[in-house]
Amino acid sequence: MPSNVSAIAIDAGGSTTLAVVVDINGSCEAVVRSGPGNPVTDANRAAANITDACAAALAASAHQPHMVVATVAGTLSRDFPELAESLATRALPTHLILESDLLSAYFSATAAPEGSVMVVGTGAVAGKVSGGRLVSLRDGLGWLLGDDGSGFWMGHRVARAVAADLDGRGPSTSLTPQVLEFFVDVPRRSGVRNKDLAALLTWSQSRTPVALAQLAILAARDAATDDVAHTICSEAAAHALATLDSLTQGDEGAVVLGGGVLDPSGPVGREVHARLGERARPVADGIAGAALMAVRELGGDADEATLARITRSLAQR
Amino acid sequence: MPSNVSAIAIDAGGSTTLAVVVDINGSCEAVVRSGPGNPVTDANRAAANITDACAAALAASAHQPHMVVATVAGTLSRDFPELAESLATRALPTHLILESDLLSAYFSATAAPEGSVMVVGTGAVAGKVSGGRLVSLRDGLGWLLGDDGSGFWMGHRVARAVAADLDGRGPSTSLTPQVLEFFVDVPRRSGVRNKDLAALLTWSQSRTPVALAQLAILAARDAATDDVAHTICSEAAAHALATLDSLTQGDEGAVVLGGGVLDPSGPVGREVHARLGERARPVADGIAGAALMAVRELGGDADEATLARITRSLAQR
């Protein structure tokens, strides 16, 4: 196929946006990185960062891509007009295709048109892929109503367990001295309440609830030695597996697993990978999948050979 | 004792503030009511409402009280300078004594200087009383880090259970159609996600998290007929009892129980009252206790006879 037909593929994440120019055969060039690209958190900032990544990828490429394939969080329930406007302002390609970042995570591990994917980072969401499209979702409902077993869920449990420990209502845990480190600079005041507990309250009230997700790492670190931390991690794994079970319902296809909590080197990811056995396919990010989806949109063969070519050419950059 | 020595007693609650003028013998007159008086939620509004109640009580009384004894939420961890300023501006008595509303709830049921009290409404907090003072606390840590078994805790469980039901991850529950009634006016959009679930998300994101406490009543209503509702109520009761146990540690004194969740006519209150037996003493509000504390501050006898006089004279108004 003529290799001068190309697109900009984008994987927009909560902390980093990745962009690459990919041709119809899956050759990638000009891998670039910009800031947070989650439109659910901040649509204008996400549009600006994705646009920056597109401009940088275009400037570094010999191709003249005419299309942008962007995989982002939350587009299934929300429009993202800010991005098309931002691309037009900078004279970038305005032929824009928006897809879910669940799908780019999925296609980063396999080109199979049927399977499942789960991403557990700050949030937790799973999706079923059929005919190469996302046909159903489970969870991804946010920290208040869902995200069972997510980084927020774990960090919230850590904070509540430490509060109960300091309050004399819960078991002593090694998480407590580690959480205290997070707010050593909050002044302690005397009162009827435990001073550290009062300081924990002050600290937690000074930030957005979802910031508690940063405490998840403490549970993962102490899972082998502390009962409270162990329970948090094993319940998080049970939640992830229950969410997957409700989606796949006995289907034996591949399950792509992404996000920091499901990393197989941590206790939650290890348990989930162990339960799924050979069906589990870990992915680090979604840029390869976004590139494969771009090849599909360009009319190329979005098969395993193309995915292998994408993965190889990304590894060289 | 000379009955012309008097004070304004205030019980400032999250939805209503009550005020009464009480003399040194416990005779009450001029019971008045104003709006929310919780300084933790909104200190300026609370100060204004408490001041309004003081002014109205003073205007309706033949006494010339020189002191204000106000029991409010959260003063143990926070100053409340707005109230003294507001009283001074209106030329009301500025001899102000602030106490915890846990103590006024306690003294509404008993004049005993030793005992325990728990109030479970939107939040959940318990305290130990010794020498007529609050000497230790459990929970009351707010919806994010604590309030185990509270109205928020129950309503949050209801919302998550309904979300899981609509998402195909959790058991079917009679709570679902009732929660749907809360947001019938949210437009339904088609998408990969269940339309009612998407509408529930939109609805919950349009208000403050603590507003989920309004769903607690649904769990109480269906506790006898729905497994999910039953579990929520029995776990709430278990949390309340665990919080009390950690505080009283085998001590067999009276336990005063206040707040809507612990009302003995509901499933959570019924279970907690049943477990505590004769030690349980229900209270509806804290105005009698605030009046008893005012008698104590005036130098009167804050004993059972005075409490009985306060209760009788309040009942006549």
Structure description:
- The structure is a homodimer of 317-residue chains.
- By secondary structure, chain A is α/β, with parallel strands linked by helices.
- Chain A is built from 12 helices and 10 strands.
- Chain A has helices spanning 43-59, 81-89, 101-107, 142-145, 151-166, 175-180, 195-205, 216-222, 227-248, 267-276, 287-298, 304-315, and strands spanning 6-12, 17-23, 28-34, 68-72, 96-100, 115-120, 124-130, 133-139, 255-258, 280-282.
- In chain A, the strands form 2 sheets. The first copy, chain A, has a 5-stranded mixed sheet, sandwiched between helices. In chain A, strands 8-7-6-9-10 form a 5-stranded mixed sheet, sandwiched between helices.
- In chain A, helix 1 crosses helix 2 (81-89).
- The two termini of chain A are 23 Å apart.
- The model of chain A has no long low-confidence stretch (mean pLDDT 92).
- The A-B interface holds A 76-77, 134-139, 141-142, 144-146, 148, 156, 159-160, 163-164, 167-169, 189, 191-193, 197-198, 200-201, 204-205, 209, 212, 242-243, 246-247 and B 76-77, 134-139, 141-142, 144-146, 148, 156, 159-160, 163-164, 167-169, 189, 191-193, 197-198, 200-201, 204-205, 209, 212, 242-243, 246.
